[in-house]
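Researcher: Please translate sequence to structure tokens.
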Amino acid sequence: MLFVSLGIIWGLPYLLIKVAVASVEPSFVVFVRVALGAAVLLPIMLARGQWRLLGAHWHWVVAFALTEITFTFLALTWAEQRISSSLAALLISAVPIVGAILAWRFGLDTHWSPRRGVGLAMGFLGVGALVGFDVEGSSWLAVAAVGVTVLGYAFGPIIIEKRLQGVPSLPVIGASLAINTVIYAPFAWIARPTQPVPATAWASMVVLGVLCTAIAFVILFSLISEVGAPRAQVITYVNPAVAVVLGVLVLNEPVTVGIVIGFPLVLAGSWLATRGGNAVVEAEPHP
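Model: Translation complete:
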């Protein structure tokens, strides 16, 4: 139930962002998202007394907040003003591939096998198919913005693994959302709506902040405690499919040649590139 819930919840943001940015500036959307997420998580942190667990790690928490949220959330939200939610979700699905390269580069996973090389090649071919078939000349900046999000989402866990290992995830995420609430407050004030905002846009931002940010992280932590981090990462292969289905059914986005060719290649490449290399790992069952 945790896995299915998170697969659906983290397939929703692309649709919600697309609906919100039709009426509201990206910086305002990001502010509402992080502010609501912080409003949900901060009371839990305070009740558990987890602020003190951050201790001397604050500078790395700030680095994580900037890398994982500040630039990534804004880049993705800005991009969805210009490309479909389906394409954005499928490009984001390349995160495990980039993460595998970064993990190797920073010594977190030194094993490299021909299978992983094949997986990386397949993944990049899939991204190439998505971009080649689905991106027009005016959308290249949006694709580059999604690339910023991919790098941030892939690099954030490296900071956790290298510099914040042993620090509970909940205070790290809660503090990161609070930091970004402060960062985005002045930009959100400047970009605040001056015309009436449709109820659908407000509802999208509320669900984005409360469900897809705060509650989703709580579910993720519960899932990791049940099945472990490696198996929990399988969720990465489900979210884009949910996003594509929602984009087609709710927003009437087309099923393009790029999606049909690129999506399977990206998923297969991600799976091959992120699997362990030894026989023991290969023999483990996967959900």
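Researcher: Any highlights?
Model: Confidence is low (pLDDT under 50) at residues 277-287.
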